Amino acid sequence: MADTSAPANTLPEAANGTLPVPDAAAETVAAIAQAETVSADEIALYDRQIRLWGLEAQNRIRNANILLVSIKAFANEVAKNLVLAGISSITLADHEVVTEDDLGAQFFVSEADIGKNRAEAAAPEVRKLNPRVQVNVITTNVTSEQSEAFYKAFDVIIATNLDFLSFTALNAGARIANRPFYAGATHGMYGYIFADLGTHDFNIERAKSNRPTTKTPETATRTVIDFTDKLSSDGKKIELVTKRELYTPLLLVNTSPLDPTMQKDPRKLRKVHPLLTCVRTLWDYQRNGNGILPSHAPADLQLFTTLAMQKHKELKLPPNTLTGDFLKSFLANLGSEIAPVTAYLGGQLAQDVINVLGKREQPIQNLMLFDGEECAGPVYALHPIFPDNPIPAVPIVPPEAQVLVV
């Protein structure tokens, strides 16, 4: 992220706590100065992150157009981090208006904005973060948008705090347009981030191992497709490895099993966080037309509990790992926003988007959960398993059912 807390010409510390050698820093700045696409002002503003992930990655970031749907507390954090990183534009899409509930954890709106469109109210504050970033506003419900051209106008599509049908509709549009898609939500102390990047290539740098690197699959979703050896600045052998990840759309993830290797290990199954069951239960609750969130009426609570037991069994998890106390806690947190949780997950999602744009580092594959009570953030790869074709590379069709925004 762009760091405005220190002078732009301050050298960053290396991983071992030492400063990079002056010659290397000078060469980096000289190379950047020769780039026609980056101005001197931008070099100064984004100095630290350019040194961190390189000029090529920064160029991809500075040319990125982001669609952010539903501007609540989670989205506030995502927008803040992406705008400070120096993207080209961000489009805030929300057809809802600001209410008193929005004032608890959001920082782009105030009491004076109550009754105004949520995206329009947030836009001026977003612009103040980085005047170089263009901020656009859409005040209509984009979850019913099915035009491929609409989705192709963006490099990444992010939706937060929507219901399951709205998420899957946007995911379908992103798939058809071949665009990365993220979905995320927070409920009090709990939350999650989902990623469907279609087919995504990324690079990692690592120390050269005695074991030779080969162009072979690493997992059911990840394959090494290229590698190059080179020397680091201190003369050590390193290699640049290019990997390809395959992803699954949310509609299929909701019914996909855990990794087969995990299913065969009772110890691993006992460690699966019960939040996975609860999140998938909420998706089914919404998908089946029961409403956005269950009320505190006994019938709703009983229905949700019954669905949760079914989903837990579907995942082949031990019955005693889903307790009544955890179910009660999850249900009590539904629909609320807590700033530390939205800040953490918003930062995580934005960082993953930056990595994806820069084609660096391993992205989320494909569902990250967060339990603020335990400060736990497990990641689960959920995919339909078919012989000889573990990940279906086909777009999904937008559901025709009416979609709603929370």
TrEMBL record:
GO terms for biological process: protein sumoylation. The keyword RNA-binding does not apply. One of its GO terms (molecular function) is SUMO activating enzyme activity. Its main location: nucleus. It holds the Pfam family ThiF. GO terms for cellular component: cytoplasm; SUMO activating enzyme complex. Residues 46-372 form the THIF-type NAD/FAD binding fold domain. Keywords: Nucleus, Ubl conjugation pathway. It comes from the Eukaryota. It is found in: Nucleus. InterPro entries: ThiF/MoeB/HesA, ThiF_NAD_FAD-bd, Ubiquitin-activating_enz, UBQ/SUMO-activ_enz_E1-like. Pathway: Protein modification; protein sumoylation. Belongs to the ubiquitin-activating E1 family. This is Ubiquitin-like 1-activating enzyme E1A.
